[in-house]
Task: inverse folding
């Protein structure tokens, strides 16, 4: 498993940041890295909720919520990644209130496809692309959460 970490301070209350993340099936409504998303389970929030995401510009994910601690922490298992060099992964989102908003951290652990070659690709290419992607995710989350608090 390889791991990348990204953090961002968001000038919005933790409850507003959580409200955006907790709208689990509708990530495409605010995340520019997702073209289309929808629930694939009866549950739309909490442990066990599942969704499908079509990514921009390509690829698709099947995801399941593994941990749900309102306004604090969410873990999402990436069960399959179509069209991507990733076999599976786990994204952990942690929200910490600060005097002026919320600090959000993302730790993403993943197993690359293609064995030893995938590990090398991870170190040389995939880690950087994922770091850039999650930085964009946090920027979009920031925009959406601040819009919610307006």
Result:
């Amino acid at each position: 498993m390889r791991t990348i970490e990204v953090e961002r301070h968001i000038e919005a209350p933790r409850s507003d940041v959580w409200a955006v993340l907790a709208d689990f099936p509708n990530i495409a409504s605010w995340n520019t890295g997702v073209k289309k998303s929808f629930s694939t389970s009866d549950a739309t929030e909490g442990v066990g909720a599942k969704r499908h995401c079509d990514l921009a510009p390509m690829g698709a994910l099947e995801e399941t919520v593994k941990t749900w601690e309102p306004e604090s922490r969410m873990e999402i298992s990436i069960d399959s990644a179509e069209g991507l060099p990733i076999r599976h992964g786990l994204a952990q989102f942690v929200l910490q209130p600060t005097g002026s908003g919320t600090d959000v951290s993302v730790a993403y652990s993943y197993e690359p496809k293609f064995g030893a070659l995938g590990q090398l690709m991870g170190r040389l290419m995939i880690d950087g692309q994922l770091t850039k992607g999650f930085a964009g995710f946090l920027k979009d989350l920031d925009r959406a959460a601040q819009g919610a608090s307006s």
Q: What stands out?
A: DSSP finds two helices and seven strands in the chain.
